[in-house]
Amino acid sequence: MLKDIRRESGVMRLAAITLMGLAAFTATSGASAPPQMPVQQTTRPVFHSQVTLVAVTAVVRRRNGQPVTNLRPDDFELYDNGERREIAQFQSTSSQISVALLLDFSGSMEVGSKMAAAHDAVESLLGRLTPGSDEAGLFVFDSKLVEIEPLGPAPGNILAQVDKVRPFGATSLYDAIAGAGRSLSEHAGPRRAIIAITDGADNSSQLTPAQVSGIASSIDVPVYVFVITSPDDRSGSSVVDEKSLATTLQGPLGDLARWTGGDIFAVINPVSTSAATQQIVSELRQQYLIAFPPGLKPGWHAIDVRTRQKNLIVRARSGYVVPSASGVPE
User: Is residue 64 part of a domain?
Assistant: First the structure.
């Protein structure tokens, strides 16, 4: 059994290989697959014993949403480009979680009560973390990404920092997610996630959702997105534009979240906020951590993680790229 997949222990040492690729959504949700084209990625820590292994985290639920936490290695099947792979190392025990909170403070967040809703989302999430054990950090962004509170023991001074934020500027949401992912890649915590709190608008990013998905996938970090809504988004309206909200949830931003093994939520009221934060923290604590030998053929490798029980839904990143001998994907 694996004691800690990202820390040195006996013959099992921390190693890093450069993986470049795009994640896909492995659950049966019908989400479209990202383009299978390589983009430049950061290095990521993986298992290492006799050989370098690829690490992937997976969340398993029943179709009614109930988590499944008692599975063993033999309950899983893992395929790499359709070829069955043996699971080399496995961990199912809960441990501390590390979250990078990514707060949108672009000009559009000044509309209505969006910042108040963002405050409530951060407060709800921090309230579910274990003080002094779990870790949290705060990034804010408009057209640029700024680290406000470094990753450290929760809750830190995050909530007070959120209250100081004043919306301003354009929105580079996709670039900010990529930047937070690169920063989180330097942290060796076993269960990590980016939690983006935004109104869903992006008008100045250089990267596409598929490219950002690849960056997060390469370090096996799920991206969870809270979409803040306000009736004032519609001039003269007192209700949320449900059609527009559904388009955001099912569009490129939703794809990005699901491709990385994360999810997207609409923040409409305190009840929806509480349910979303509870689901995220529960999923991070209940992740299965799996490692397997990488394929040898350079290029894109699609990962398909399944369980032998066909009525269960698995959500995980599901792609990586093996570089050629020259270090460039073919």
Answer: no
Structure tokens that stand for 192 in this block: 């990590």
Beta strand 15-18 with 43-46 is antiparallel
pTM score, whole prediction:
0.80
Q: Which of 196, 187, 180 is nearest to 280 (CA)?
A: 196
Compute the C-alpha angle 118/313/69, nearest 5°: 80
Q: Determine how many CB atoms are found less than 10 A away from the CB of residue 216.
A: 31
Query: Looking at the 3D structure of the chain, how many domains does it have?
Result: 1
Please list the alpha-helical segments (H only) found in 165-300. 173-184, 209-218, 242-250, 252-259, 270-285
Residue 60: inside a domain: no
Site of tokens 């994907």: 329
Confidence of residue 40 (pLDDT cuts 50, 70, 90): very low
Task: Specify whether the CB–CB gap between 67 and 58 falls below 8 A.
Answer: no
Which backbone phi and psi does 145 adopt, to 5 degrees?
-100, 135
44 DSSP β-pair partners: 17
Question: pLDDT at position 103, please?
Answer: 95
Q: Are the C-beta atoms of residues 287 and 58 closer than 8 Å to each other? A: yes
Write out the residue range of the structural domain in which residue 215 sits: 1-54+70-330
Q: Which amino acid is at 293?
A: P
Q: Is residue 181 part of a domain?
A: yes
The Cα 200–Cα 196 span in angstroms is 10
| CATH assignment of the domain containing 114 | 3.40.50.410
Residue 62 belongs to some domain of the structure: no
